[in-house]
Amino acid sequence: MDRKIEKKKWTVKKIATIGIPAILFFLVAYALIFGDKSSKLNIELEKQTVSVVYRGEFQEFIPIMGSVEPIKTIELSSDEGGRIEHRYIESGTKVSKGDPILRFSNTNLLLTILNNEAQVNRASNELRSTRLLMEQNTLSLRNQLLTLDYDIASQKRAYDREKTLMDRDLGSKEAFENARDQYFFTIQRRDLTIAQQRQDSLFRLNQVDALEESLEGMQENLLIVKQKQDNLTLRAPIDGHLTSLNAEIGETKAAGERLGQIDVLDHFKVRAAIDEYYINRVEKGREGSFDIAGTTYRLVIDKIYLEVTDGRFQVDLIFTGEKPQGIRRGQTLHIKLELGDLEEAVLLARGGFYQKTGGQYVYVVDESGKFAIKRDIKLGRYNPQVFTVLEGLEIGEEVITSSYDSFNDIDKLILKK
To answer: What is the DSSP string of 221-236?
Structure first.
């Protein structure tokens, strides 16, 4: 008996026709809703610089360039101007303190000396004459007093004799009065002579004191002027090398005009220019270092010149400890100047990425090594080699530190090896 075959509703063809588009739709919808929507860029890993975040010792420093200079330099100038008569030595010569370098002639100074000597001689003669006059007056007074004492003694005898006669009613009253008046008159004359001579002596003493003071001042002035004459010979103020001498025989130089320079070449210092940005962080005692032939040498800031020129200020550094051999004036040194103390920190190597990001983000390589993800970070202090990491990175993570100029703020970098 024939059986009726029922037609199947869900055939394989029908299921495939409906199911495949459904699956594709589901996959697309899932990708749109839950899939990775970040922008991507394929790059070659071998062309990038990858650095590992690590913990290590950090010291903030800046690179500066310094020039070697003599530890001490003396500018030569003459206290007295004049015409150069003789040049004792040439530039480049080693000199000792006190060695003559130049000799000047100055007729005006010579005339001044002669005039001062004449004034001193006149004052000395006047003082001598005044003292001689005082001695003569003293002798004259003694002579007058001797004469008056003799007259007083003689007149006293006459007075006593007349007084005795008067007491006995034997003498003349007129003779007694004449003897008495003459006697007391001579006594008063003697007292007046002494008083007059005393006043004259005081006047002469004051005159002598004034003349002595004036003479002393003139002698001091003469001594100063003669010292100026000594200054017509320019001498080396220190031991050193006469590195320059701008003076020729026959030239006339003004007082204070620069004539040359003496350098102390037994020791050296380093003069360096630093960006004014660091002017508040650079202080006396800060240390620096430089390398020559594989050896590191240390320096310390000895003097700071706060005047800013073309955006830079200057410092002087002196050597501490061992000094390099064969160092010469004008030699350029590349110095690492320390701005802080040594400390522990999380560090990331410096690289071209900073110019693009300003340190706000980096690309961190995934553990799989297949891609790198953009991540926000926060960097702190830095030196020419590393940044300190404040936030966003962990020790051991790998970061692309080369230039980001071609990445255009892409979210994910696909790394091709």
So the answer is: HHHHHHHHHHTTEEE-
Provide the token pair at 222. 């003469």
| CA gyration radius, the chain | 54
In DSSP terms, 239 is beta-bridged to none
Alpha carbon distances (Å) from 8 to 5, 14, 19, 20, 308: 9, 10, 17, 20, 97
pLDDT at 119: 79
pLDDT of residue 299: 93
φ/ψ region of 60 (left if φ > 0, alpha if ψ in -120 to 50, else beta) reads beta
Give me the chain's average pLDDT, please: 83
Residue 163 falls in which region: left (phi positive, over 0), alpha (psi -120 to 50) or beta: alpha
191 touches 152 (CB < 8 A): no
Distance of alpha carbon 301 from alpha carbon 287, whole angstroms: 6
At residue 365, the 3 state secondary structure works out as strand
